[in-house]
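thread: overnight batch results

M.L. [08:02]
morning all. the overnight job finished for the chain we discussed friday. pasting input first so we're all looking at the same thing
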Amino acid sequence: MRRNGFTLIEMMVALTVAAMVALLAHRMFSEVLDASRRAADAQDALARDMNARRWLMEAFGSLDISATSGGFVGRAHAIDFATWERTVNGTLAVNRVMLALVADSLILAGARRIPLATPVRSLDLDYLLEPGANSVWVHEWISPVSAPLAVRLRLNRGSVVDTLLLLIGPRG
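M.L. [08:03]
and the structure it wrote out:
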């Protein structure tokens, strides 16, 4: 004898399978969205780091040492100097800037206060006296009329130490 329709057991099995497929699809889509969000966050962090490096290279490359700019003050853990920066309307202007470690961030203080790198455990700066195989790096450079050839900036970020070699304008 043949019956039309489904038994209660068959309906329960079909509903259970459909619910599991829907649950797996939901989890898969939420994981894809989370991965996409993490990738976007990593891309933003990388863009911030690269913009900070670009700014540092540009600022040290256009450093201004003149009687009116206030000279160069480089210490072991902070640096203060004048540099030519682009203004909003595209022209260049001399601005006094300072780089220092504040809390756990490398901060650019000047016309505006900008975190360049986060998190940072320590900041170490060295200044190049002269180029060559036996070059000498010093921990301080304070002069109203001259700048070092280059600045070695080391950021301790916990598991890694990031070292940047920043050449000084026409001197470097």
